Every structure is written in structure tokens, then in C-alpha cells.
Amino acid sequence: MANQVDLNEILTKFNIKTKIDPYGNGHINDTYCTETPKYLLQRINTNIFRDVDGLMENIERVTAFLREKIIAAGGNPDRETLTVIKTAEGENYYRYDDEHVYRVYKFIGDTKSIENDKTPDDLYEAGKGFGKFQRMLADFPADTLHETIADFHHTPKRVEALKKAIAEDKAGRAASVSEEIKFALDNAVFADVVVNGIADGSIPLRVTHNDTKINNILFDIKTGAAECVIDLDTVMPGSMLYDFGDALRMGASTAAEDETDLDKVHFDSEIFARFAQGYLSEMRGELTEAELNLLPFSAKLLTYECGIRFLTDYLNGDTYFKIHREHHNLDRARNQFKLVAEMAEQEAALCELVKTL
Ligand code: ADP
Ligand code: GN1
Ligand code: MG
Questions:
Q1: How far is the CA of 266 from the CAs of 91, 248, 263, in angstroms?
Q2: Which one, of 262, 219, 229, lies nearest residue 115 by Cα?
Q3: Interval between CA 215 and ligand 3 midpoint (Å)
Q4: Residue pair 278/125 in contact by the 8 Å Cβ criterion
Q5: pTM for the complete prediction?
């Protein structure tokens, strides 16, 4: 467990001496923040990210590239991208042992991260923020990045992983979730649309973030503008549809990702429109016809994919996502499937709406 390690000892490796406390709400890493001066310490989840050298190399190269672009545009690189703090020995992370691997970032203050209370304007800003991130990385050589998690958004392989989890039924839960399993398998018909588009060349590979949930962007506390895209562990070659769709998965829901009262969980098309406006204000000129046509579909695809990942983890006995209660992953899966159903109902109307943007 992380707390068996003395975090103050870890901090001394980065020449930092100050009090430290847990911070943030991620499902993957353990995050802490120091008092003054403020730094963000993270224990990298090495069960999920096996190649920490490759991962940190990606982050250092991408942030250095962004830094140059931000400076050229007259921005502030210390706020508009992450800054990796090196150890006293000049390394970009510190390995205590194989399970306790830490990195430090500059803390980006005077920002807020949005979990659930959000307005359409916040989502406009988020769309602009993720769009700008992709635009600035458009000339980064994508094929030089390490693939930090293989086949991360290969939805058909996620379906295969679900089928394997059903067959193995490690936690003895499959019989109790037959309805959710049926929904997941019935909807697998659309799982291959984006991977097929990438394979036939109609959807280009770009440098994408791949984990664009709304709390992975920091907003300026005064202006509300998207200040910095964070959580760069999954920056890899991908489709822009992954980033567009995944942001709406949580961003366009009227409730939290784990809300159990499904009457509160709805897909909000006004938010979809505002996010799309923000995103297209940065990326309009870059997108192909196929990408534009699939924008509404991408929200459904990525929400479906995340739903089946939660369901798979539930069947496997909760080994991937952090949970805070017994059936947490099942609650998350049901919540995502409710959204998928509503997104499917609204897809045709949203395609018309995209044409007007
Ligand atoms: P996870 O992979 O577990 O989601 P994140 O990198 O997203 O971890 O960090 C968790 C939370 O910590 C974020 O949602 C954000 O609120 C906060 N955070 C992360 N990096 C910074 C930073 N450099 N400055 C300020 N807050 C940050
Ligand atoms: C995880 O790291 P975090 O909490 O931002 C996950 C995403 C999921 C998301 C669901 C590396 O994101 O893929 O969409 O949870 N990240 C990884 O909330 O698996
Ligand atoms: Mg995160």
C-alpha cells in the first residue's frame, strides 16, 4: 500500500521538504499535494502502466513540445502545460520499489477541476481546451510515442475482454448481471466502426490524449477558461474521435459517473453542442469528412466502451479501477449504459446539429 511508504522520504529525492496530503479524484494513480511550495506528487499505477520509462519519456517530450508552442503564442508554459520536476539525480521519476514509483509536477494553482457541477459554458471551454491540445500536437511525430497501454481504445478487443470475463466469471457475479451483459453484447455491433476507419485510412491517426474526462482539464478560477490539459499518461497515437467522444461521456451527462439513481442520468444535447462548438473552433480546419460525420457516434462509442470496461472489471473482481464501495463498478456500468441508450436515440438529431456548426 502506498501509505506504508514515507512520502516525506520520497519528496527528499526531489529536494522537496514540506507537508503532504492526498489530493484529487482519479481512478488510476494516487495523487498528493504538498503545502508550500505546492507540488503535485503522484504514485504511478505500475499494475496498469508497465513501462514507466516509456510513459515518462512520452510525457517529457510532449510537454517540451507544447512548451515551445505556448511560448511562441505568447502564453505561460508553466500554467498551460504540465512541468515534470526532476529528482536530485536528474531522473524524471523515482522508483522506491516496483510498486512504489513516483513523479512530481509543478502544481498549477488558481485553477479548479470540474467533477460534476458544470455548465454548458464550461463544456465550451473544455472543447476548446482539448481541441487546442490536439491542434498544438498536430505536427508532433505520432509514431515516435510509446504505446503506454496497448489497444487502449480498440473497442472490439474490449468486447473480447468482456466475453472472457463472462466466461471465467472470477468473482461469481455473471448470473446477477445478465441484463447488463445482454445490453453490452447486443450493442457490440457498432464496436468496430472507428478501428475499421483507421484500418481503411478514412480516419487518420493523430496524437491524442485518450482520457479526456472533464476532470483531466484545469480551468482558470477567474476566467473559467480551460488552462491546462493534465493526466497525460495515455497520450499516444489515436483517433480524435476517442478524445471527442470520451469528453462527452462524462461532460454531457446530467449526473455523476457513478450516480445510482438512473432517473437523474441523462445525455444533455445542449452540452454536446457547446462542447462541439468549442472543439471545432480549434480543430474545424483539420478534420476529415468521416471524422465530422462520426462526432455524435463517438460519444456513444466511448461511453459504451467505458461501460463495458466497468462491467468487465466488476466481473473480474474489481482489479483495475479504484472502487469506494462494493458494487461501484456495476453502478458505473449501469450509469454508462443508460447514457448509451439516450445517445442512440438522439444520434440522428445530433448529426443534423453538427452540420449547422
Ligand atoms: P488520475 O490518473 O488518477 O486520474 P490525474 O493526473 O488526473 O490522476 O490527477 C488527479 C487530480 O489531481 C486531477 O483531476 C486534478 O484535480 C489534480 N491535478 C493533477 N495534476 C495537477 C497539477 N499539475 N496541478 C494542479 N492539480 C493537478
Ligand atoms: C480512468 O485516470 P482517470 O481517472 O482520469 C481511465 C479512463 C476511464 C476513466 C473512467 C488509464 O481515468 O480510461 O475512461 O477512468 N484511465 C485509464 O472514469 O484507464
Ligand atoms: Mg485523471
A1: 45, 12, 8
A2: 219
A3: 6
A4: yes
A5: 0.96
User: Residue 3 — very low, low, confident or very high, per pLDDT cuts 50/70/90?
Assistant: low
- Distance, CA 59 to ligand 3 centroid (Å)? 14
- With a 6 Å cutoff on the Cβ, whether 40 touches ligand 1 is yes
Cβ contacts of 72 within 8 Å, gap of 6 or more: none
Q: Residue 206 pairs with which residues in a beta bridge?
A: 238
Angle at 32 between CA 251 and CA 6, to 5 degrees: 155
**Considering every ligand atom, which ligand is closest to the CA of 63?**
1
Half-sphere exposure of 73 (CA within 13 A, CB side): 13
pLDDT digits (tens, 9 = 90+) for 77-128: 999 999 999 999 999 999 999 999 999 999 999 999 998 889 999 999 999 9
Distances (CA, A) of 222 to 123, 213, 217, 279: 16, 22, 15, 21
Distance from Cα 245 to the centre of ligand 2, integer Å = 14
For residue 130, give the nearest of 258, 256, 291, 241 by alpha carbon: 241
> How far, in Å, from the CA of 272 to the mean position of ligand 1?
24
Which grid cell is 137?
500536437
Q: Is 29 in the pocket of ligand 1 (CB under 6 A)?
A: yes
HSE of 283 in the Cβ direction (CA atoms, 13 Å)? 30
Round to whole Å and give the CA distance between 323 and 325: 6
Integer Cα distance of 58 and 22 in angstroms: 26
Please report, to the nearest 10 degrees, the dihedral formed by the alpha carbons of residues 305, 103, 142, 63 taken in order: 120
296 Cβ inside 6 Å of ligand 1? no
CA of 84 to the centre of ligand 2 (A): 21
The ligand 2 site (C-beta within 6 Å) comprises: 26-28, 211, 213, 216, 231, 233-234, 257, 306
